[in-house]
Structures are given as C-alpha cells and as structure tokens.
Amino acid sequence: MSDDEAGGSLYVLSAVLLTPAQFPSVLGDDYPEACAQLGVDPLPDGYGLVLGQDEEGARWTVVVDDVSLVAIAIASWDCGMEYDLSPDERSVVVSLAGWPLALAVAAPGIPDPHDPEQGADGTGRVPLAPPTADVWGPVQRRLGADQIAQQWDDWRERFETDGAAPVSHAGLTRALAEAREYAQTPPPPGRVRSAFAGEKARTLRADGPGWSLVARTDDIAFVLLDEEPSAVIPVPREGKTDLPGLLAALDGVAVRPA
C-alpha cells in the first residue's frame, strides 16, 4: 500500500474496524468518542484502521473509508488465509503516527518499529500509543471488559453460581442504574453493543462514565468499575437487580454488526 502522508510505501501488519458496532475500546466508551480520538467524523458506515510500517520502520495508523475491504481482510486472516490488504489511496481519510494497539509483529527487512518524529503526520499530534498496564483507569477497565467478553467461558467458570453478588455496592448500584437509563434515553452509538454468542444468546457490552458491563442475555453479567482496580463484580440473574429485564432492555437499544 502507498500513502503520501506515511512517506511512501506502507507495509501492512494488521487492521481493525472502527464502526458503531465494533471499535477498539482503547479509543473510548462509544463510537463518536473513538472517532474523536482519531480526529475523524463519526460516519454511519465507519472506517477501517490499517496498521503498518513505512520503509524506515516508522509506525503508522491509516484510516480508510473502505470498510468492506478491511472487513474482508480481517475475516480472511481470522480463517488463516492470506490476504493482501492494499486500500486504494482515494479511500485514505488520514494517516496518523503511531499505533493505538500493541502489535507483536514487524515488517521484515526494514528497521524495527518506532514512532516517527512528533508531528510527522502534519497535525502536530503526539503519536498514537497502546495503553500501559501499570495503571488502572477507563482504558484498562474497558480492555478488561473486552477480555471477559472474549474469554467468557473461562471467566464464567470462576463464578459457578448465581449467588451472592455485592448488590449493595454503591458503584455497582450506580452503574446498573445508569445502564437501565439507556433504555429510556438511547446513548451515543456504540455505548451498547450486541454480538452473536451462540444459539439464542447475545453477548452485550455496555459502557458508561466509570463503568463497563459484560453479559450474556441468557446468563449473568460482570461489571468493572474505575474505582475498583482490576476487580470483576458478578451480577446474578436473580435478585433485586432484575438482570434479565435489564439485559433485554439493553439488547433492544444495542448496535449490532451488519
């Protein structure tokens, strides 16, 4: 792939989608916030983020509006198939220095991955960088929720019963109340997302100021809070929380993949 802003050829290493239904949680609680982090408008169809290195080894994140092409590439890679992701230069919206995600791969035959000089993308922005793991905050909380959603069975085994969850926890009570309000006043796109989870179940992700919720519509939920570093709070289906009703309401306003 070639791109003038990235300084010539770009060796593509990975790609992710930036759509209302699927976006990197490191960028925000919802789709508009994630777009704002990259300085692009929250278009309804979204974008693809192409991560690569230029000929000097510098890291670049290229935002393209050819979402279908990027989605096909990701699906092919997930199936173990080769796919040459080379978006047309006309689809490039902006090229940003750095990567928002950590990659364990590098392009062969060029210098090791490094950030170009600050402002090298012409915007004066600090290069994008993955979050650190030695602090706890909104980004780490959202990434923790991502991990639970991706490894649901493993996390579910840690909580064998639907028994005692600390429903009198002030932060948990606030988070559930704010989540319930989403059914009355729909939040920004991407604040609540629903994905296929097998059979008739859906995986729900909801985020709000200081909290993240992960749930299966036929099972329990887990809540993470900014004020409780690394803690995962289970929410049972039975009890005063009326979790089944809450999950049904969230699924009703959630954004779903096309």
Structural summary, described in words:
With 258 residues, this protein is an alpha+beta fold. The chain has 2 domains: 2-97, no CATH class; 138-253, no CATH class. It has 6 helices and 10 strands, in the order E-E-H-E-E-H-E-H-H-H-E-E-E-E-E-H. Strands 1-2-3-4-5 form a 5-stranded antiparallel sheet. A hairpin with a 4-residue loop joins strand 8 and strand 9. It is elongated and about 60 Å long. It starts with a strand and ends in a 5-residue tail after the last helix. Residues 2-6 have low confidence and may be disordered. This is Integral membrane protein. Residues 109-133 are annotated as: Disordered.
Properties at a glance:
258 residues; alpha+beta; 5-stranded antiparallel beta sheet; 10 strands; 24% helix
Concise synopsis of the structure shown:
With 258 residues, the protein is of the alpha+beta class.
Topology, element by element:
Layout: E1 2-3, E2 8-18, H1 31-38, E3 47-54, E4 59-64, H2 67-78, E5 92-97, H3 138-150, H4 152-157, H5 170-181, E6 192-196, E7 202-208, E8 211-216, E9 221-225, E10 233-235, H6 243-253
Antiparallel strand pairs: 1-2, 2-3, 3-4, 4-5, 6-7, 7-8, 8-9, 9-10
